[in-house]
Write a sequence for this structure.
């Protein structure tokens, strides 16, 4: 039985397929033998509009759909654009799932976000605790917009028999990430800060918060493999965490990145800036049990690869600024 028989579809549509994760997902499926993959790029198909979604579905004629497109950013962008991040992610996901159902899509993969977990959920986060409280305030509008898509997926499965699954990845990183300081996540932002400080001979680098919060990071190629495995092997309504199983404090992360880059100055912490969620790491046992996923790239190796890529491409990367993927 080949991969297409297991998934039950032949034609895939990958929203956000030209973005950071999306490019890896498309490459992962292609490497596994998929040849009919349609990527609706934002310049041609604005998936925040019903017209853009309808045209993408008409042109792609998908039997399977992987929804990666999102309006995203780090803690600063979430603070600045809570209304935009809620509305655009919610309206895009809700309309896309409904129109995909109407169009007869056989398998739908919805990607959520780890920041949808309650602010003080027991760690490591288990899928059973997904609804045990309210998300951390800074990321709540984005997290709740994505969380509603789990409600929709489960409701559609019950009423219509729609085969939608829901994955909850931790923070992703890797080569070709978004390094714009206004919209990037923590790892690319730190890499750029430390590299620029090293080049300028700056004696200090300012870091947000106290450095005490912890996070879990997953290398982007591992995430792409997890998505393919889940698309092929998982057909249940319950959400599934996708992570590395490695928790690290922001302070230790900063020191690790500074060491890789060779920055010799001082790290200065600004406690007036938000820390975000106190701890964030997930229980990854369900992903391994249900579809055989286990992360392969250790954080140190992934960081070295990411730093090396940015050093080689930094001029082009600094021009990137759109939070839409």
């Amino acid at each position: 039985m080949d991969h297409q028989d297991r998934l039950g579809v032949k034609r895939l549509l990958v929203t956000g397929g030209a973005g950071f994760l999306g490019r890896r997902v498309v490459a992962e499926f292609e490497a596994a033998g998929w040849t009919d993959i349609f990527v609706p790029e934002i310049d041609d198909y604005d998936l925040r509009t019903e017209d853009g979604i309808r045209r993408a579905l008409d042109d792609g004629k998908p039997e399977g759909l992987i929804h990666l497109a999102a309006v995203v950013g780090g803690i600063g962008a979430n603070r600045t654009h809570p209304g935009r991040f809620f509305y655009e992610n919610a309206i895009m996901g809700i309309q896309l799932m409904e129109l995909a159902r109407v169009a007869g899509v056989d398998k739908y993969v919805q990607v959520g976000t780890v920041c949808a977990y309650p602010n003080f959920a027991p760690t490591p986060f288990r899928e059973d605790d997904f609804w045990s409280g309210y998300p951390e305030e800074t990321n709540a509008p984005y997290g709740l917009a994505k969380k509603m898509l789990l409600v929709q997926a489960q409701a559609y499965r019950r009423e219509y028999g729609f085969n939608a699954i829901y994955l909850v990845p931790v923070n992703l990183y890797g080569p070709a990430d978004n390094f714009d300081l206004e919209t990037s996540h923590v790892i690319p932002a730190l890499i750029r800060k430390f590299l620029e400080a090293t080049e300028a001979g700056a004696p200090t680098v300012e870091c947000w918060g106290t450095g005490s919060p912890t996070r879990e990071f997953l290398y982007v190629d591992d995430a792409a493999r997890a998505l393919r495995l889940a698309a092929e092997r998982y057909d249940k309504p319950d959400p599934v965490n996708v992570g590395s199983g490695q928790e690290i404090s922001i302070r230790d992360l900063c020191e690790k990145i500074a060491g890789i880059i060779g920055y010799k100055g001082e790290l200065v912490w600004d406690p007036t800036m938000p820390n975000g969620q106190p701890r964030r790491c997930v229980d990854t046992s369900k992903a391994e049990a249900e579809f055989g996923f286990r992360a392969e790239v250790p954080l140190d190796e992934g960081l070295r690869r990411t730093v090396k890529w940015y050093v080689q491409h930094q001029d082009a990367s600094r021009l990137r600024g759109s939070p839409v993927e």
Notes: The chain is about 45% helix and 15% strand. The domain at 3-175+215-247+279-297 is CATH 3.40.50.720 (Rossmann fold).
